[in-house]
Amino acid sequence: MPDTTINGITVSVDADGYLTDHSQWSRELAEGLAAAEGITLTDAHWKILDFIAADYAEKSAVPGMRRMNKVGGIPTKELYALFPDGPIKKAAKIAGFPKPTSCV
Amino acid sequence: MKNILILGAGTAGTMMANHLRKRIDHTEWSITIVDKEPQHYYQPGFLFMPFGIYSEEDIVRPKSRFVGDGVHYRDSAIERIDAAANQVLLEGGETLPYDVLIVATGTAPAPDEIEGMTGPDWRDRVHEFYTFEGSRALRGALDKWQGGRLVVHICEMPIKCPVAPLEFAFLADTWLRERGLREKTEIVYVTPLSGAFTKPVASKILGHLLDDKKIDVVTDFNIGHVDNEAHKIVSWDEREVAYDLLVTVPTNMGDPMIERSGLGDELNYVPVDKHTLQSKAHANIFVIGDATDVPTSKAGSVAHFESEVLVENILSFIAGKPLDTKFDGHANCFIESGNGKGFLLDFNYDLEPVTGKFPIPGIGPMSLLEESRLNHLGKMAFKWVYWNVLLRALPLPMIGHKMTLAGKQIPDGVVRPTAAH
Ligand SMILES: Cc1cc2nc3c(=O)[nH]c(=O)nc-3n(C[C@H](O)[C@H](O)[C@H](O)COP(=O)(O)OP(=O)(O)OC[C@H]3O[C@@H](n4cnc5c(N)ncnc54)[C@H](O)[C@@H]3O)c2cc1C
Fold this sequence. Notes:
The complex is a heterodimer.
Chain A (H helix, E strand, L loop, with lengths): L2 E4 L2 E4 L14 H10 L6 H17 L5 H6 L5 H7 L4 H8 L10
Antiparallel strand pairs in A: 1-2
Chain B lengths: L1 E6 L3 H13 L5 E7 L3 E3 L18 E3 L8 E5 L2 E5 L4 E4 L4 E3 L2 E4 L3 E3 L16 E2 L4 H12 L4 E7 L9 H15 L6 E6 L9 H7 L1 H5 L2 E4 L4 E5 L4 E4 L4 E3 L2 E5 L2 E3 L1 H5 L24 E3 L12 H19 L12 E8 L2 E7 L7 E6 L3 E5 L4 H18 L17 E2 L12
Parallel strand pairs in B: 1-2, 1-9, 2-5, 9-20, 11-18, 12-13, 12-18, 13-14
Antiparallel strand pairs in B: 3-4, 6-7, 7-8, 10-19, 15-16, 16-17, 21-22, 23-24, 23-25
Helix pairs in contact in B: 1-7
The site of flavin-adenine dinucleotide (FAD) has 35 residues of chain B, from helix 1, strand 2 and helix 7.
């Protein structure tokens, strides 16, 4: 697995830059991962990242758009405003979780 | 007498009824199964019906025929589960008490979840193939097809049989070629995910299929609404995809009965322990098949492996013993890739699909994650296996509920399962 250095921290990532070992994640690292996506993390971003972490602990999966809306109370428009283009995959990456995938 | 009550006589409920009737002490336990719909549909056949590969008769049988002796079959809609009182309310007011409840009510398309989906274009230019009626209507639409933009689309994940839309695109490519319509048809595949294939090993090996077949892929498309006037689907970030024929997979949701019972998550799936299938909220409720929230594919093969685990756990539960048999998320799926070929996936919670030989390590005869004619024949044989082996709760020769690592080639960089299998 390739190693990469973000914010001075060396971590293992997959080919798309997602952490392969969540235990290497830290809030400091998240700032660096966000910067690489052109995002400066605010409290509004952190609310989403914290929801993903709490939900992953419960469901072993990154929440989808509907779950973000209904359970996390985060509207789709807000997700697009904070994490433009692919909000869920970007937020998952910054939160240190795998890219949402299908079975194949 | 004590009661085991099974809700839903589809794939998973039927298997559980047949497992339990062979194993339970009938002097102490009574088994009842309830379903609202008298016909059992072989759902994998919904993919083939639009192309005339299967007829309606191939894929429909009466449900009660598959539930063996020793099980009471009830033809009724279920209104609600009253978990606090250990009883189920049927439509019409009758109540059925239970000691152990098995929820197997599956998942179904819910097109009304997307704005405009069931507008004027519905069943005209907008179709789906996740129901019997939908698949039949789509057959009619394809019969009239003269060319244009065919858009194959997934509304949101998760959906049952997640590869079915991709298979539809591949089969459409072949079908159009055979009719001399391929040159006149653009095929576009639209997904909310980051690619048509999303797992690293599979993407590398199979990613070329879309290019080879000249299927355009639109990724990260989260649908906001369907514009029936302009015949376009529009995403939340205001991207548009025009269609002449839209073949969509609507949002899949667990039955509204789960919501009425207060037992589901945001998609009406029941939260369970992913290894024992016991409900997180009620110890005497177990859930199997598409109705659960477990992080593996929603597929008939998964329901089969789960049923082998769940029968052991239910027998343990009623004997007051710990639930020792663990489900590992094992799924085994044949995927059509068009031109009379297919590929085969074997994976679980911890290992993504990889290459190898199956079921006999090193020999096969099936090859994993590789296009072959034999894998296509495997898919076609699955119909016979489904009616005659799976529904009757018979074991699949050489294929156990635990996924095996033998015969699999796990490339460097792929996370290996930590648990010993
Ligand atoms: C197009 C398509 C292709 C597929 N291809 C494959 C494939 O190739 N391989 C594979 O393994 N799987 C495939 N599947 C998936 C497979 O069909 C399902 O995963 C499987 O049928 C799930 O079984 P189940 O028992 O959980 O749900 P179902 O078989 O759907 O059964 C649920 C039952 O519950 C009943 N029910 C629900 N609510 C109520 C209520 N309120 N009152 C009374 N009854 C109720 C329903 O009538 C139904 O009979 C495919 C599915 C589709 C749609």
